[in-house]
Design goal:
Blueprint (H helix, E strand, L loop, with lengths): L15 H17 L2 H6 L3 H21 L7 H34 L5 H31 L2 H13 L2
């Protein structure tokens, strides 16, 4: 799991508006570092790291909810949806590991049934991945990244 970055240029005299902006911006950047790996779908740890980073971002946004104009709620809601979509895929990765360990501990006669469960798990994960890719396609079409960064800059700098 990727470790959270230290937030630079924040001290006791930093105005809250500037500090929360830097925190949100940094957490967003951390999350986006895992976008390509998550979309490629080859390394479940990329998805896991993106989900963890999205939860950190969401926690920062939860604290700041009342500090921004109403439009912030759209960005907050979208990040919450993203965390949920990531979790919908990640849950199957975790389940798969548990099922493989369980299968390997069981008698050979029980393994076909567990293998069927694993196949179902793979199928459901792929459905979740399709939803994930569609979600990111929507964010790209909406230029979410640019709009989100612009909103945070507009309301936290100065």
């Amino acid at each position: 799991m990727a470790k959270a970055r230290k937030i630079e240029d924040i001290g006791p005299k930093t105005p809250y508006k500037a500090a929360i902006g830097r925190l949100i911006e940094t957490r967003f950047d951390e999350m986006m570092l895992h976008l390509d790996g998550t979309l490629a779908g080859r390394d479940p740890e990329e998805l896991h790291d993106m989900r963890v980073a999205s939860r950190r971002l969401r926690a920062a946004m939860d604290v700041a909810l009342d500090c921004f104009p109403a439009r912030f709620k759209y960005f907050h809601k979208t990040i919450k949806e993203l965390t949920d979509v990531l979790g919908g895929v990640r849950d199957y990765d975790v389940l798969r590991v548990a099922l493989v360990e369980y299968r390997d501990s069981r008698p050979v006669a029980e393994r076909p049934a567990i293998n069927a469960m694993l196949q179902n798990c793979r199928t459901e994960r792929e459905v979740g991945r399709e939803h994930l890719v569609e979600f990111f396609d929507r964010l790209e079409r909406e230029r979410f990244d640019v709009r989100f960064r612009g909103f945070i800059a507009e309301h936290t700098i100065g």
